C-alpha cells in the first residue's frame, strides 16, 4: 500500500520539491495531446486523467486534445468496413467520416469527460466543430474527408478555461458548407496550442521521445532547440513517423508556444514527471 511506502514527512518533501514548478504553471495554459496506447490501456488512461485532474486542481489551465484511431478502426470493422491508410493517414469517405464523428465526438470524448469528473475535475467535451473551433478544407483528394486546417478560433476554448472547466476537444472539423473532416490529432494540437499562446504543449506518443539511436531507449535526447531539431533531420536522427510529430512541434513553437515535449504516454504519470519534477520525461523542444 502507498501508505506503507512513504512517511508523512516524505510525502511533504515531495510536495515542497514540486512547489517551484507549480508556481510556474499556475494560471498558465498547458495543452495535452492524448492518444496511442496510453488511451487504449485502461490503467494508463486512469493515470493520465488523474494527472490532468491534479494539474487542474492546483490551478493549471489544462486543455486536453484527443484522438481515437484504434476505436475508429474497431467501429469500422464492426460495421463491416475495412480501414485503409495512405502515408499513415486514414482514407475517409463519406461513410467513414460519419463513423469518425460518432466515435471521436461521441463515445471517446464523453468517456474522457466522465473519467475526468470522476477524478475530481470539471470538464466539458466539445469537438473542433463546436463554436467553429477548427475550420478545414480537403487536404488531399485521395484521402477524402481528411482535413487541412484553415482556421482555429481560440475564444470558445478560453471561455471554458475562464469558467474553470477543462476543455476536452475531439479532432473533427467542418467547413462553411457543413462538410465534416477528420483532423490529425498532432496537427490539431499544434494549431490550438498556438492559437491559445500556450505555455506548454505535451505530445503523448508510443515512444520515449527523440532517440539518437531509434533502437536504443538509453539514447533519448532530453532537450533541443528548433535549430538543433532541424539539424537532426539532416543527420537522419529524426526520421519516419517522428518527422510529422516534430514538424507539428516546430509549427507550434513558431505560433507562440513556449516549449513542446514529445513523451511516452505509456509511462505512468509521465505528465506530472514532465511538469513537476527536475527529471522530466521525453524530449523537450525549446522555443527559446
Tell me what the structure shows.
This protein has 288 residues and is an alpha/beta fold. It is 44% helix and 22% strand. It contains eleven helices and 14 strands. The protein has helices spanning 2-5, 8-25, 37-40, 42-57, 69-78, 94-118, 155-162, 185-196, 226-235, 242-254, 270-276, and strands at 29-34, 61-66, 85-86, 89-90, 123-127, 134-138, 147-152, 166-170, 172-174, 180-182, 200-205, 223-225, 259-264, 283-286. The strands form four sheets. Strands 5-8-2-1-11-13-14-12 form an eight-stranded mixed β-sheet, with helices on both faces. The N and C termini lie far apart (43 Å). The mean pLDDT is 87.
What's the structural blueprint in terms of helices and strands?
Layout: H1 2-5, H2 8-25, E1 29-34, H3 37-40, H4 42-57, E2 61-66, H5 69-78, E3 85-86, E4 89-90, H6 94-118, E5 123-127, E6 134-138, E7 147-152, H7 155-162, E8 166-170, E9 172-174, E10 180-182, H8 185-196, E11 200-205, E12 223-225, H9 226-235, H10 242-254, E13 259-264, H11 270-276, E14 283-286
Parallel strand pairs: 1-2, 1-11, 2-8, 5-8, 11-13, 12-14
Antiparallel strand pairs: 3-4, 6-7, 9-10, 13-14
Helix pairs in contact: 4-6, 5-6, 8-10
Amino acid at each position: 500500500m502507498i501508505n506503507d511506502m512513504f512517511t508523512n514527512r516524505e510525502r511533504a518533501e515531495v510536495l515542497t520539491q514540486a512547489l517551484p514548478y507549480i508556481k510556474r504553471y499556475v494560471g498558465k495554459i498547458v495543452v495535452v495531446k492524448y492518444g496511442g496506447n496510453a488511451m487504449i490501456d485502461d490503467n494508463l488512461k486512469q493515470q493520465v486523467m488523474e494527472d490532468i485532474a491534479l494539474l487542474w486542481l492546483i490551478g493549471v489551465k489544462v486543455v486536453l486534445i484527443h484522438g481515437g484511431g484504434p476505436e475508429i478502426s474497431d467501429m469500422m470493422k464492426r460495421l463491416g468496413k475495412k480501414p485503409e491508410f495512405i502515408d499513415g493517414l486514414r482514407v475517409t469517405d463519406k461513410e467513414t467520416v460519419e463513423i469518425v464523428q460518432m466515435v471521436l465526438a461521441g463515445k471517446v470524448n464523453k468517456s474522457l469527460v466522465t473519467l475526468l469528473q470522476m477524478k475530481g475535475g470539471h470538464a466539458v467535451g466539445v469537438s473542433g466543430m463546436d463554436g467553429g473551433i477548427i475550420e478545414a478544407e480537403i487536404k488531399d483528394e485521395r484521402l477524402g474527408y481528411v482535413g487541412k486546417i484553415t482556421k482555429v478560433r481560440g475564444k470558445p476554448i478560453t471561455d471554458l478555461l475562464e469558467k474553470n472547466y477543462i476543455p476536452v476537444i475531439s479532432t473533427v472539423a467542418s467547413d462553411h458548407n457543413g462538410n465534416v473532416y477528420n483532423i490529425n490529432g498532432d496537427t490539431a494540437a499544434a494549431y490550438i496550442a498556438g492559437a491559445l499562446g500556450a505555455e506548454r504543449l505535451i505530445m503523448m506518443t508510443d515512444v520515449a521521445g527523440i532517440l539518437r539511436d531509434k533502437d536504443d531507449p538509453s539514447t533519448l535526447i532530453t532537450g533541443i532547440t528548433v535549430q538543433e531539431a532541424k539539424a537532426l533531420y539532416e543527420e537522419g536522427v529524426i526520421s519516419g513517423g517522428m518527422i510529422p510529430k516534430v514538424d507539428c512541434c516546430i509549427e507550434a513553437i513558431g505560433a507562440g508556444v513556449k516549449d513542446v515535449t514529445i513523451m511516452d504516454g505509456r509511462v505512468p504519470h509521465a505528465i506530472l514527471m514532465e511538469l513537476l519534477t527536475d527529471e522530466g520525461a521525453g524530449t523537450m523542444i525549446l522555443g527559446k
